[in-house]
Each structure stands twice: as structure tokens, then as C-alpha cells.
Design goal:
- The protein is an alpha+beta fold.
- It has 14 helices and 21 strands.
- It has 5 domains: 64 residues, no CATH class; 57 residues; 92 residues, Ubiquitin-like (UB roll); 99 residues, Translation factors (Elongation Factor Tu (Ef-tu), domain 3, Beta Barrel), CATH 2.40.30.10; 116 residues, Rossmann fold (3-Layer(aba) Sandwich).
- A 6-stranded antiparallel sheet has the order 14-13-16-11-12-15, covered by helices on one side.
- Helix 1 crosses helix 2, helix 5 packs antiparallel against helix 6 and helix 5 packs antiparallel against helix 7.
């Protein structure tokens, strides 16, 4: 029987990104069977499998740790002792089952040989029976002396190790799959992976994260005040914020698939840090209460209101995978919000937050190369999109073009260069004073086919419109271009 692996597990075992695996599938190098790949195909394309994390997987995890903060605190390298014991017990039971199957097959072969011997002794045997006996003895000797398949052994060893360290969760009806690492809850792992499950407090009080466990074993990692009915318990409902996965599990839960699926939220948050980048630019770090995390899609905006009453609608510059810690870049101007922020605001002050708004979001099901174009302060929503794209790991390749008016205007350049150095499929082109024509010239030079990519562009309306019109004129379909005006 062919052994099959889900794409997420196959990518993790091979030490590559899911996007790299999907690229090879599209090229025809690996065949899929109902969304899964065969172990033999995986070993053929990635013959070297080791227990150490290698290649793109290690790079992606490192950049996630640096550029995309986790939505929880604490060490998550190892599961809790209780979860670790449960996973080892589950794997032991699976191993016992496998050994029992092998023993039964061995007994079947022994019984087959006994029957053939009896048949051979009872009557003058046909030549075919004698030949079958010889064949059976030869095959058993061959199997016993056959060298162990080193590739399959390493793959099995790594899979066993990863099953102890983490469990796979498959969502239905969406089919999305992610891994629960260490001591994190199912909800935390889902949010970190870029999925938008329903939740509110994330601490077991509201019940908004309730979902049904279809199969697999879970472990309650914290008590909760929300009371599940006896019928809900019998049907397998749990709070995903208070349970982790012990074995691979299937969970039935609704996911927000569009901006219309996300409710408007009003949150009383706190200014965590004010980080001046220059006399004219401030990075504003906002932290929501633990009981009220913002649910939003990358590229969206919220309205912020200071204690002075001054307000402004700003794009979020951070990843939805950490909805509690939000980042904004604020340019000093004549408006009351920026004036009060620069002159009166301080850390620990309260700040109102209403949102999210806007439809400048990723085509999450699209895997083709994505081009991100940031014009001036348009880098804020573009940064959010890129971090989310890294989190969901489906886009084949990224290229960021960031044009500013002054040489020192790229305040997120360290972040850009870190991505470029860490991810093999990420390119960054910094530009100073580039017009629409300059950007289009670079796109034609860099891309094999300018009409084959998807474009996400944010910046002042006049400049962004000029670039968009140039792309349309170059044959790019309108549905492949998404634009956010940032004036």
C-alpha cells in the first residue's frame, strides 16, 4: 500500500516550505493523490532527510520568530510534560498496532507454508505447488536479508520525532492544515498560521472559539469559565483556546474567509511604546487587553482615538497572527491626531480602537508570484500583507519594491533586508525618487512575464494610480491588481 502524507506534513519532513513543495507539484515533479503525496515521491525529490531542521523550513521559522511575533508568551520549544506523555503513549499504542499487524502477517505466511507443505505431502503435487513453495522460501529469505531502506527509515524517524513535538490539525470544511507546537493551544496555533477562527477573549470566558473535535485526542491546558452544555460535550465541542492537540486531530469550525466575515470591534487598548524613527515619523505600538484581541485581515485599517479625542484611521503594519500587539507608522502633519501623538502621548496611555476596515487583502488561495509595491508610507499595509503571506506559506515567490522620496526614508529597511537574507524566494528592491515609469521599467526587467504575477500596491493616490494604469496597459488583468490609497 502506498504511504501518503498531507502537504503540510510532507513539507515539514522534507525541511522545505509548503510553497516550494507546491511549486514542484505544479512542475510535475511530484504527483498528488487527493491532496496528498506519496512517501516514495517525497524521498525521490528530497532524498536527504535528517532529524535536524534544514533548508527553507529553518529559515522561515527564524524569520517568523524575528519579524512575526507570536501571540503568546513563554517557551514553546517543548510540550508540557502531560502533553508529551500523552503523545508518547499515543505513538506507543500506534507502534503496538503496527507490530501486531506485522506479527499477523508473519503468522499468515507461516500458515500458508504449512498448508502448502501438507498439500505437497498428501497427493502427487502439481509442479506449480512445488514451485510456489520454492518461491515462498526464496522470497522470505530475500526479505530477511534485504538492507533497510535508509531514506524511509530516516523519514519514519523524523516523522515520529515531529509527532512527539507537534501535532497536525486539519480544519473542516476549509481543509486548512497547521501544526500545534509545544504547549500552545489549538487557537493560538491557528492564529499563528494565519487562519481566522472565531474567538473573543482567548482565555476561556466568552465561548466564541467553540469548535467540534471530529477525530483525534486533545488535552485541556487550562480551565475555563464558559460552560459547555452536556449535549455539546457529547458532540465533541471544546474551547480551542483552552485545549491543545495530543495526536493529529480534525476540527470542525467556521473560518472568516472575507472582510465581510469579520465584525467591527471596539477595543479599549493601551499605547505600549512610542518609537521615534525621525522628527517626522513615529512608530506606534498598541497592545490590546488579553481578553479582547483584534481580529483583522492583513492590509486592513482601524480608527485610533487618543485620550485627547483626536482620531485618525491608519493601516495596521503588523501581522494578523499577533492581533494583540499592533504596529502603526504615524507621519507628523497638521492634523490633531499626529500633533497630539508627537507632543502629548506617552507609553501606558489608553487609546481607543475601532475596526477593522478595508478590502486591501491577499488572494490567499493564489500561489503564483506576488509583487508588492510600496510608495512612501504605503509600506505599512504592505508590510502586514507580506508577514501574513509568510505565515500562511502558499505564495511561490515575493518581490518588494519600495520607493521613497529621501534616501533615509525607508524606516523598515532592516526588516526588508532581513527578509531578503533569510528567505530564498524573497527579493527586495529599494528605490529613491522613482516615478511610475521607473517602477514599470524595473518590473519588465525583473519579471519573465509581467502579466503572470499578482500585484499589491499602496501609496499616495496619484502615484499609485499611475503605476496601476501602467500595469493595465502592460496587459495585467485588473483582478490581479489590488491598490490601497495612503494619502
Amino acid at each position: 500500500m502506498t504511504q501518503l502524507l498531507s502537504l503540510s506534513r510532507a513539507a515539514r519532513l522534507a525541511g522545505v516550505t509548503r510553497a516550494d513543495l507546491q511549486r514542484r507539484i505544479r512542475r510535475g515533479e511530484i504527483q498528488t493523490f487527493e491532496g496528498e503525496v506519496a512517501v516514495s515521491d517525497l524521498l525521490r525529490v528530497y532524498p536527504s532527510v535528517s532529524l535536524e531542521k534544514t533548508g527553507m523550513l529553518e529559515q522561515v521559522e527564524r524569520i517568523k520568530a524575528d519579524a512575526v511575533p507570536r501571540s503568546y508568551d513563554g517557551d514553546t520549544t517543548l510540550p508540557s510534560p502531560e502533553v508529551l506523555v500523552s503523545r508518547i503513549k499515543s505513538l506507543s499504542e500506534l507502534l503496538v498496532q503496527k507490530i501486531a499487524v506485522v506479527d499477523a502477517q508473519e503468522e499468515l505466511l507461516r500458515e500458508l507454508r504449512r498448508r502448502l507443505v501438507d498439500l505437497n505431502a498428501a497427493t502427487p503435487p502439481p509442479e506449480t505447488v512445488a514451485g510456489l513453495l520454492d518461491w515462498l522460501d526464496e522470497r522470505r529469505a530475500e526479505i530477511a536479508s534485504r538492507p533497510v531502506d535508509d531514506g524511509r527509515t530516516r523519514l519514519f524517524a523524523k516523522d515520529t520525532f515531529l509527532r512527539i513535538m507537534s501535532a497536525s490539525v486539519k480544519m473542516i470544511p476549509s481543509g486548512h492544515e497547521f501544526f500545534v507546537d509545544g504547549t500552545e493551544s489549538i487557537l493560538e496555533a491557528a492564529v499563528r498560521s494565519g487562519l481566522r477562527l472565531s474567538y473573543g477573549c482567548s482565555s476561556g470566558n466568552c465561548g466564541a472559539c467553540k469548535a467540534r473535535i471530529v477525530s483525534g485526542e486533545i488535552w485541556k491546558i487550562r480551565e475555563h469559565d464558559y460552560v459547555l452544555s452536556e449535549r455539546e460535550k457529547q458532540m465533541g465541542y471544546v474551547l480551542t483556546c483552552c485545549n491543545t492537540a495530543v495526536t493529529d486531530v480534525v476540527v470542525e469550525a467556521a473560518e472568516a474567509r472575507s472582510v465581510d466575515d469579520l465584525p467591527e470591534q471596539e477595543i479599549r487598548a493601551q499605547i505600549r511604546k512610542l518609537e521615534p524613527e525621525s522628527d517626522a515619523l513615529m512608530l506606534l505600538h498598541v497592545q490590546t487587553p488579553r481578553t479582547q484581541t483584534l481580529r483583522f485581515m492583513a492590509g486592513q485599517r482601524v480608527r485610533l482615538t487618543l485620550e485627547t479625542g483626536a482620531s485618525a484611521e491608519l493601516p495596521i503594519a503588523s501581522c494578523p497572527c499577533n492581533g494583540r500587539n499592533l504596529l502603526f507608522s504615524v507621519r507628523r502633519g497638521e492634523d490633531a491626531f499626529s500633533r497630539d501623538l508627537f507632543e502629548q502621548a506617552s507609553a501606558r496611555q489608553m487609546i481607543g480602537l475601532i475596526g477593522p476596515y478595508g478590502d486591501f487583502v491577499l488572494h490567499e488561495d493564489a500561489t503564483e508570484p506576488a509583487v508588492f509595491i510600496a510608495l512612501g508610507d504605503g509600506i505599512a499595509p504592505v508590510k502586514s500583507l507580506i508577514e501574513h503571506a509568510i505565515s500562511i506559506d502558499t505564495i511561490e515567490a515575493f518581490h518588494l519594491y519600495w520607493s521613497v522620496t529621501q534616501p533615509d526614508g525607508q524606516h523598515f529597511q532592516r526588516w526588508c533586508r532581513a527578509l531578503k537574507e533569510t528567505l530564498d524566494n524573497f527579493a527586495f528592491t529599494p528605490l529613491v525618487g522613482a516615478g511610475a515609469g521607473d517602477v514599470l521599467t524595473l518590473l519588465r526587467a525583473d519579471l519573465p512575464r509581467i502579466d503572470a504575477a499578482r500585484y499589491y500596491m499602496a501609496g499616495p493616490s496619484a502615484e499609485a494610480t499611475a503605476v496601476r494604469d501602467g500595469l493595465l496597459g502592460a496587459g495585467v488583468a485588473e483582478e490581479r491588481i489590488r491598490v490601497q490609497w495612503v494619502d
